[in-house]
């Protein structure tokens, strides 16, 4: 930089202008003269100042003679302190002559007042004598000398700041004086005599002060009178002799940081992140200094100490003139590099590198402050090595690498160490390396090459300081190159020098300077991790960086440096995900370092109880390793057999060809081993997310390549027998828990298959997660939720062959976890505990649905149903004996529990005491899922809807003679059972039913959905018996008449038995006379006439009978008139009455009011004449039985910041990357909005039953980049038994409609309920009535109870208003340029993501939602074909969901699945965290109760039965 200019160092050091003529005389003479003259001058000065008398020195000759005496007085020994003090007073007074007019100008000689400039230069030269050390002086005298020096320095500062008449010669004289003073004080090495006092203690006391004044006045000179290149070269050359003082490095960085802050302000703009300085440092730079001057000063000051890496080379620092002179004068010191003061070099080297690191961070845009950092760099006692305080942004209480350093046998082997210098193995030194949290970088930061041009040479040299190289990396340097200036004046030279290596032939593994080396290498890691998308870096920088990383990542004891390794791991989290060329060559070494931190050290010190042994448990260090590990998971299966280039090729090293696929086993062992030892919740979740990625990636890869693992025969037999219906096995099992004890985790590990296959890894992962869940994670909410999310994800994986035994064990372990959580002591029960139980029930549901064969196993079914019973009722009917022991440990009253010998307690005999209402609701949901969906999902109508797709309108189209709902009333009869199930009964047979049988069509609406059934009352089966052409109940016909009727016996009937005739009559018997005895002659003719009539009648009857018999004999058989005929078949039935009666719902007890007056009867009739009933039933149908989420997907091209530009990208497939469309289709399947029965992303088009006449056949758009899925025609949809997700890709058309309509979304009008009350059906269904609308109006329902709200509050403990929980916004953003995530316009795009449910959520304002409930998943395609994930969002009390983790690198085949699972889990966690969230079946139940309150038709028993026999409207 100054090669063409000469240095003034020799001139300054040999300058004699500070010598007086009195120095020619003996000391006694000079002292006598100086004492007398100076005393008189000082007295005259005082008198002149007090009496306003002018100074008597009137001529130039007189003044110069007096200055000669004063010059000698300043050089007197410290025994003459009074004289020295008076000299200082006189000169300080006379120096005011160059200042603005003084209040006492008479005290200054007239020649100084008239032309002060030449005199000022002479006085400055003379004052240099004051700064010359006086050997042999006592401590008090030296301290007084330091006080005089401070006064002179303050006066010089004042002159430099305020004087306006200093010439260039005066400025140069001033700067030369400061350089000479610093050189006089700082060049000699500090030594101590036999008494322990430092002979040069004045330099130690004034070091910081004299340096600060030098740098400050030099900056002022740059502003007022820019120094010449010779002065700059002199300053730079003289600093070489001062580098053994740490204050030099401190002041150097103060100026550098102040200048860097100003440089960034005008080169990067005012919005660039600023380096926050202290008030004192911010005033170092004059505000009016020009930009060009600042830039010149910044670059020159940056190189003022030349190469700071020389601070790690005592042979360079100790070979100055003063050090050589001290060694020659010493009787004990032979080598100047062994001087005692050089023991502080390691710490000074660290401070130098730390200051460079701060400047690099400032250029990268990392926000930081210098307030505490400056305090750290200033040593309070130069005789002691002070441990600096933690820099801002890096304050951590742990000491991460003390175990590394203590295990390093090769550290501190050089002879230049002592007991006073902390070794690298001490905890104090290890505490200086701290984790710097990953902070966002400035998007407009300079290129990596630009920063490396400035600092690369220093950082590369420092990163390899004192390193013992392999033979292949050793280069014999040219003569003197080690001691040459490693920092040249041009960028080209610095880049050329940056590739040279320090060659320490005789030095072993010396970790004395590992602090500075660690800081330098960590800074390099941050620079390379700041690599932008598409940015190029010079190959020379790549090669040098990878070489430094290679030695920094060494884990062998001969080469390892613990602090360097920790710094690399802390600062290189992003190194594998920023598209660095050739970075994969570091992969084996990175894995070795990760293994050391995550597996080797925890296992090595696992049983140790000493404090030093447990320091490896540094959470941040482990987190950094996990971050690195998450970047490597997909590499083996992605590159497979590709060879990794070796960075070492030497004869003294064993070089083996390593392929990516060969590292798969190591990565698997790393993540499984880390899961076994880590205790931090965040680290656990990150590892679980990585494990899920590994298992899924391996499973998908195996299926794609059709290379499934075939287990051995024993395993096949075990797996095949898992679900066999073996009654003997089931009978032998006395309890469900016995299987848990027979197959614990450690025993399963013995028979585990090779984890290289998906089959083996699946089993090992599930077993490990369940084991850790029940032993370690059950008390941590976030870890338990993460474990459940991963288990749910593993349940959906397709493993070939299926690991059936592990599936069964997993279900049992989940059940055991639920039992453990429910049986915890009462003080342990909290919302977090119940959240884990709810999540476990949901996970168990997914396992049973995905593996329905599990319930064919009696033991498994018994365990599951017992857990359901426990969740609903709070206890099991029968508990095993082993749990009784466990309950004693938890101090729960044993009287509440059952023994194994006790008979089971039935539910009607138990008191229902669930752990909480949420737990009960989750258990009810699981039970319903078992009954309805296990083995039957997806339903016939597809996974889009768990409901029947038939409603009243659809069914009436198929009835005979009707095609729509009547205007008044409804043909359906509506009843409510147990206040929770609405049954609509249609007595009209459907058109496809021809049998004249009692037929009823039932629409059953319950908490878990809507179901349609058609039932007939039949006395014979519909299907004929096989093998017979006629039914066994066919009519046999009338029997054929037979002629032979047998013997006809004429028997006269008797009124009394024959024994009566033998009884002797009495007089009483004869008291009634006979007819003959009463007939007289007079009336006998009449009697005879009556007898003749009777005879004629008998004859007539006999004749008629004979005639009739003859006619019958002549007639054919059978007689059509007299034949018995079956009655006419009835076609009109009271089918509703029959249904209620046959199913046991119709009884007098069911119609009576409950004992609790607020509860309705068990059987309630609804008022079908009220027009609002049908609308409220439609509202009930819109409350789905599953949770729903909406994910909005955006595509951002490089550099885009405007919402319109982002939305325009998806209009054409030519504007996007090809992987984007593939990613979209991996999220779900396309559905047509008009025909879709599930969630569509907006309530106005969701959960509706499409009618053929309402569907418009619009041609779908083609050639789009995803805009077809904007929610107008199609969306991407995915659903399982518990969740449904709509993936919407907003387009520019959506934005234009929003602008034209002046609305945020096509939501429905708030007056929708008014239309319903008028009987008008809306075109689409809604979620619920607006929150501000009253629940009912007078006259809507005559039988509505007045205390409905009181009833709901008492029973459910919730408000009557239905809320669906938080409105969580989930954005998936595809980035072409990763840096664009800093400028993504979330606020501008938020109005396009309205789903219509915002008015039903609990968020109080849009601003709160923007701050709390927006989660962003950024995806960036790397050049190697993998994808980098970045996640943002405020997590609150419950942390971010997995399996995706911020910084993870995922493969192409798992990207869609991982994003979908994460989005679903985000929604689930936010719902768990919400205080007001109600599960779907609870919302449906509350809505049913509201319907009962509004439309309950109160009737007496007689009126109810009468209404059953009455017809309804048809």
Strand content: 5-15%
* Main β sheet profile: 8 strands, mixed
Report the end-to-end length measured between terminal Cα atoms. 103 Å
The portion of residues assigned to helices is: 40-55%
Radius of gyration: 50 Å
> Average pLDDT across residues?
77
Spans of at least 5 consecutive residues whose pLDDT stays below 50 are 194-200, 371-435, 476-508, 607-616, 708-752, 881-898, 1303-1361, 1403-1411
Count the DSSP helices: 56
**Which overall shape is indicated by the principal axes computed on the Cα atoms?**
elongated
Class by SSE composition: mainly alpha
Strand arrangement in the largest pleated sheet: 11-12-13-10-14-15-16-17
In total, the number of strands is 17
Describe this structure in words.
With 1514 residues, the protein is mostly helical. 45% of the residues lie in helices and 6% in strands. The strands form 4 sheets. The chain has an 8-stranded mixed β-sheet. Helix 2 packs across helix 4, helix 3 runs parallel beside helix 6 and helix 34 (758-777) runs antiparallel to helix 35. The radius of gyration is 50 Å and the shape is elongated.
Question: What does this entry show, briefly?
Answer:
With 1514 residues, this protein is mainly α. The strands form 4 sheets. An 8-stranded mixed β-sheet has the order 11-12-13-10-14-15-16-17. It has a 5-stranded antiparallel β-sheet with strand order 8-7-6-5-9. Strands 1-2 form a two-stranded parallel ribbon.
């Amino acid at each position: 930089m100054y090669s063409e200019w000469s240095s003034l160092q020799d001139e300054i050091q040999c300058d004699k202008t500070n010598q007086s003529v009195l120095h020619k005389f003996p000391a006694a003479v000079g002292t006598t003269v100086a004492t007398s003259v100076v005393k008189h001058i000082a007295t005259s000065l005082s008198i002149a100042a007090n009496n306003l008398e002018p100074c008597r020195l009137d001529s130039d000759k007189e003044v110069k003679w007096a200055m000669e005496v004063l010059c000698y007085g300043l050089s007197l020994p410290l025994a003459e302190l009074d004289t020295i003090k008076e000299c200082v007073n006189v000169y300080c007074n006379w120096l005011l002559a160059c200042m603005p007019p003084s209040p006492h100008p008479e005290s200054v000689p007239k020649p100084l007042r008239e032309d002060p400039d030449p005199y000022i230069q002479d006085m400055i030269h003379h004052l240099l004598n004051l700064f010359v050390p006086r050997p042999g002086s006592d401590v008090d005298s030296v301290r007084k000398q330091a006080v005089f020096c401070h006064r002179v320095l303050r006066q010089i500062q004042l002159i430099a700041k305020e004087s306006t008449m200093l010439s260039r010669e005066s400025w140069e004289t001033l700067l030369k004086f400061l350089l000479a003073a610093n050189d006089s004080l700082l060049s000699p090495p500090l030594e101590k005599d036999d008494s322990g006092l430092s002979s040069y203690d004045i330099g130690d006391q004034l070091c910081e002060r004299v340096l600060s004044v030098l740098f400050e006045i030099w900056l002022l000179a740059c502003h007022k009178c820019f120094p010449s290149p010779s002065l700059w070269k002199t300053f730079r050359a003289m600093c070489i002799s001062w580098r053994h003082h740490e204050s030099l490095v401190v002041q150097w960085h103060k100026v550098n940081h102040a200048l860097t802050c100003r440089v960034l302000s005008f080169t990067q703009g005012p919005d660039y992140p600023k380096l926050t300085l202290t008030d004192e440092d911010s005033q170092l730079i004059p505000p009016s200094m020009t930009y060009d001057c600042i830039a010149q000063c910044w670059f020159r000051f940056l190189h003022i100490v030349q190469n700071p890496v020389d601070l790690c080379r005592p042979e360079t620092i100790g070979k100055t003139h003063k050090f050589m002179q001290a060694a020659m004068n010493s009787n004990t010191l032979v080598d100047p590099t062994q001087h005692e003061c050089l023991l502080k070099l390691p710490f000074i080297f660290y401070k130098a590198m730390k200051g460079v690191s701060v400047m690099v961070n400032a250029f990268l845009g990392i926000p930081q402050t210098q307030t505490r950092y400056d305090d750290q760099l200033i040593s309070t006692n130069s005789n002691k090595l002070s441990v600096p305080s933690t820099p801002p942004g890096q304050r951590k209480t742990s000491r991460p690498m003390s175990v590394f350093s203590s295990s390093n046998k090769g550290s501190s082997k050089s002879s230049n160490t002592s007991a006073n210098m902390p070794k690298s193995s001490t905890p104090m030194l290890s505490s200086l390396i701290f984790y710097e949290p990953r902070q966002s970088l400035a998007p407009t930061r300079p290129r990596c090459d630009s920063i490396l041009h400035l600092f690369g040479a220093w950082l590369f040299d420092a990163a390899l300081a004192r390193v013992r190289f392999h033979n292949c990396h050793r280069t014999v340097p040219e003569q003197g190159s080690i001691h040459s200036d490693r920092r040249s004046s041009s960028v080209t030279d610095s880049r050329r020098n940056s590739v040279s290596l320090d060659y320490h032939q005789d030095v072993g593994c010396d970790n004395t300077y590992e602090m500075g080396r660690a800081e330098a290498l960590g800074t390099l890691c941050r620079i390379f991790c700041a690599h932008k998308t598409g940015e190029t870096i010079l190959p020379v920088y790549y090669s040098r960086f990878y070489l430094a990383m290679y030695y920094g990542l060494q884990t062998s004891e001969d080469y390892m440096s613990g602090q360097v390794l920790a710094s690399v791991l802390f600062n290189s989290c992003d190194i594998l995900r920023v598209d660095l060329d050739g970075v994969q060559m570091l992969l084996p070494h990175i894995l070795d370092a990760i293994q050391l931190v995550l597996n080797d050290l925890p296992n090595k010190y696992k049983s140790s109880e000493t404090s030093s042994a447990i320091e490896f448990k540094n959470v941040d260090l482990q987190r950094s390793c996990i971050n690195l590990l998450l970047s490597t998971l997909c590499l083996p299966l992605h590159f497979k057999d590709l060879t990794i280039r070796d960075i070492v090729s030497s004869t003294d090293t064993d070089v083996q060809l390593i392929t990516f696929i060969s590292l798969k086993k190591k990565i698997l062992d790393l993540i499984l081993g880390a899961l076994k030892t880590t205790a931090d919740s965040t680290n656990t979740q990150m590892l679980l997310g990585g494990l899920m990625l590994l298992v899924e990636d391996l499973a998908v890869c195996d299926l794609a390549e059709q290379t499934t693992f075939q287990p051995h025969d024993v395993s096949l037999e075990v797996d095949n027998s898992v679900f066999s219906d073996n009654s003997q096995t089931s009978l032998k099992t006395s309890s469900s828990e016995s299987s848990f004890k027979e197959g614990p985790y450690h025993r399963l590990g013995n028979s585990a298959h090779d984890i290289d296959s998906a089959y083996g890894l699946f089993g090992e992962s599930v077993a490990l997660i369940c084991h850790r869940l029940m032993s370690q994670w059950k008390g941590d909410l976030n870890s338990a939720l993460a474990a459940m999310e991963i288990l749910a994800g593993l349940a959906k994986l397709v493993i070939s062959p299926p690991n059936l035994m592990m599936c069964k064990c997993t279900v049992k372990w989940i059940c055991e976890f639920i039992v453990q959580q429910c049986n915890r002591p009462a003080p342990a029960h909290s919302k977090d505990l119940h959240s884990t139980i709810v999540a476990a029930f949901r996970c168990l549901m997914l396992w049973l649905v995905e593996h329905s064969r599990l319930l064919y196993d009696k033991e498994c079914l018994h365990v599951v149903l017992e857990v359901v019973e426990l969740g609903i009722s709070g206890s099991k009917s029968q508990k095993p004996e082993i749990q009784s022991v466990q309950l004693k440990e938890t101090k729960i009253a044993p009287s509440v529990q059952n023994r194994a010998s006790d008979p089971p307690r039935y539910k009607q005999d138990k008191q229902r005491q669930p752990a909480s209402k949420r737990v009960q609701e989750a258990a009810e949901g699981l039970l319903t899922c078992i009954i309805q969906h296990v083995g039957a999902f997806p339903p016939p109508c597809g996974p889009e809807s768990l409901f029947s797709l038939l409603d009243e309108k659809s069914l009436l189209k198929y009835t005979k003679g009707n095609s729509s709902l009547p205007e008044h009333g409804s043909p359906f009869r509506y009843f409510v059972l147990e206040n929770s199930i609405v049954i609509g009964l249609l007595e009209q047979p459907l058109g496809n039913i021809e049998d004249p049988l009692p037929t009823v069509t039932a629409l059953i609406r319950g908490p878990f959905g809507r179901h349609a059934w058609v039932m007939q009352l039949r006395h014979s089966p519909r299907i004929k018996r096989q093998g017979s052409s006629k039914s066994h109940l066919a009519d046999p016909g009338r029997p054929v008449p037979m002629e032979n009727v047998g013997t006809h016996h004429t028997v006269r009937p008797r009124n009394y038995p024959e024994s009566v005739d033998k009884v002797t009559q009495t007089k009483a018997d004869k008291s009634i006379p006979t007819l003959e005895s009463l007939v007289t002659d007079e009336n006998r003719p009449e009697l005879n006439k009556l007898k003749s009539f009777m005879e004629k009648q008998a004859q007539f009857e006999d004749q008629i009978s004979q005639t009739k018999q003859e006619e019958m004999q002549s007639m054919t058989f059978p007689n059509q008139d007299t034949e018995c005929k079956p009655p006419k078949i009835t076609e009109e039935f009271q089918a509703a009455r029959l249904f209620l009666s046959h199913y046991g719902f119709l009884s007098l007890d069911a119609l009576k009011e409950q004992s609790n007056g607020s509860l309705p009867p068990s059987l309630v009739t609804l008022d079908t004449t009220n027009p609002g009933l049908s609308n409220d039933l439609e509202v009930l149908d819109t409350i789905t039985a599953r949770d729903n989420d909406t994910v909005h997907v955006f595509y951002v091209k490089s550099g885009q910041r405007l919402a319109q530009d982002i939305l325009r990208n998806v209009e054409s497939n030519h504007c996007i990357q090809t992987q984007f469309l593939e990613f979209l289709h991996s999220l779900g399947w396309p559905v047509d909005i008009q025909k879709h029965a599930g969630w569509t992303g907006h309530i106005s088009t969701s959960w509706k039953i499409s009618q053929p006449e309402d569907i418009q056949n619009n041609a779908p758009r083609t050639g789009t980049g995803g805009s077809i899925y904007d929610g107008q025609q199609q969306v991407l949809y995915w659903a399982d038994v518990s969740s449904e997700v709509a993936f919407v890709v907003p387009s520019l058309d959506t934005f234009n409609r929003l602008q034209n309509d002046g609305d945020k979304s096509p939501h429905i009008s708030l007056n929708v309920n008014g239309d319903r009350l008028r009987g008008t059906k809306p075109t689409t269904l809604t979620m619920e009535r607006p929150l501000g609308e009253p629940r009912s109006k007078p006259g809507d329902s005559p039988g509505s109870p007045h205390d409905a709200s009181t009833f709901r509050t008492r029973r459910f403990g919730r408000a009557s208003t239905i809320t669906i929980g938080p409105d969580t916004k989930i954005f998936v953003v595809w980035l072409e340029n990763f840096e664009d995530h800093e400028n993504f316009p979330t606020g501008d795009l938020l109005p396009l993501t309205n789903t219509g449910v915002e008015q039903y959520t609990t968020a109080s304002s849009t601003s709160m939602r923007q701050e709390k409930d927006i989660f962003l998943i950024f995806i960036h395609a790397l050049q190697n074909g993998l994808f980098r994930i970045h996640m943002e969002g405020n997590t609150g009390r419950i942390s971010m969901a997995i399996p995706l983790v911020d910084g993870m690198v995922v493969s192409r085949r798992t990207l869609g699945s991982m994003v979908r699972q994460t989005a679903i889990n985000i929604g689930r966690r936010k719902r768990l965290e919400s205080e007001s969230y109600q599960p779907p079946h609870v919302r449906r139940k509350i809505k049913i109760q509201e319907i009962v309150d509004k439309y309950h038709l109160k009737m007496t028993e007689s009126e109810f039965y009468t209404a059953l026999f009455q017809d309804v409207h048809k």
